[in-house]
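Field reference: sequence -> structure
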Amino acid sequence: MVYQSKWADKSVDALFDAILLLENKEECYRFFEDICTVSEIKSLAQRLEVAKLLMENKTYSDISKITGASTATISRVKRALDYGADGYKIILKKLEQKSKKKGREQE
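Structure field:
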């Protein structure tokens, strides 16, 4: 089954196709620096960190202290984790697997 986003269109598809062509962090930095503001990137990074901490069962208070995120942002991310499209869960699982693989390679 192919996931169908409720906000998919040709321009969003083109953006995601472009992102999927990025091959390394330098290319990501260059592309996102041109396409986003610093605050947009920082907000996205913060939300991903919030999701990670929520998955680790950290409290809202701890998450706010660690990330500087508001309780509204934390609640929004929590809602996405509970009722969203599982995007956070997919990427956090992949990041965890990558981290474990990297750890094994360093042994």
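Note: The chain has one domain: 10-106.
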